[in-house]
Amino acid sequence: MLCLYTVLGMELRMTSTFPDISISTDRLVLRPFDMADVPAYIEMMNDELVTAWTEAPHPYTQVDAERWVRRIAPAQRTKGDGIVFAVTEFLTQRLVGSVRLHNTDWRTLATEAAYITAPWARGEGYATESMLALAQWLFRDQGFERIELRTAADNTSSQQVAQKLGCISEGILRNARIARSQTEDGGWADIRTDLIVWGLLPEDLEGVAEQLADAGGYGTYNDWN
Fold first, then answer.
1. Residues 6+ apart with CB under 8 A from 32
2. 4 exposed, middle or buried (CB, 10 Å; 0-12, 13-18, 19+)?
3. Residue of 26, 85, 182, 223 with fewest CB within 10 Å of its CB?
């Protein structure tokens, strides 16, 4: 759905929403979350690396997961902020991660992307494959002009996913994110970290799928969050 209005002869794009769809690749299905995903989602969100690099509650509880599936994830689409996908294996239907778009600007046709991979699924290239499918859909079918990724300075695996997609490093936001570091007693402490900003434009994506195929597929890097 798209709303337009005119000011002094200029057509301006107002808040819109992405369609409620699923996206398929050779190995994966990107679809809306449902309640059957809750147990696997809780397990994924309580992984140490996910705790370290995301702002999700910790420990991540049944209540948190149900709230995400029933309210938060659907609202990101219906309110026009973006869209959230559960990423599942095509053959097994097992949850391997999630990808989402948020902070969407409908006037400039730009949005920010984020991804998480379950610990058992790392090293298979699922984050790269799902993000490539999402970017292709966004640029080709939705007419968007820019995707932005922000990766913590020490999150090298996430940065490798951005590089494989063809993203261009555009700069550093110093001291811009609060991450978490595990303490000696097994707890967690907040730490500040720089963010690397990556940009992806439609032309940056040209030939990426072919290059990945020539390089042996998606799983070169041990990608996670």
1. 20, 22, 73, 74, 84, 85, 86
2. exposed
3. 26
Q: What is the mean pLDDT of the chain?
A: 90
E strands present in the chain: 4-7, 10-13, 23-24, 28-31, 83-89, 95-105, 110-117, 146-152, 168-182, 188-200
d(CA 19, CA 78): 9
Residue reference for tokens 């570091």: 181
Alpha carbon 165 to chain centroid, angstroms: 13
pLDDT, tens only, 164-187: 999 999 999 999 999 999 898 889
Q: What are phi and psi of 110, to 5 degrees?
A: -130, 150
Beta bridge partners of 7: 10
User: Angle at CA 68, nearest 5°, toward 65 and 71?
Assistant: 135
- pLDDT tens-place string over residues 53-107: 999 999 999 999 999 999 999 999 999 999 999 999 999 999 999 999 999 999 9
Convert the pLDDT of each residue in 23-62 to its tens digit.
999 999 999 999 999 999 999 999 999 999 999 999 999 9
Bridge partners, 9 (sequence order):
none
Place of tokens 């007419």: 143
Residue 68: φ, ψ to 5°: -65, -50
Which among 96, 103, 118 is positioned nearest to 29, based on CA atoms?
96
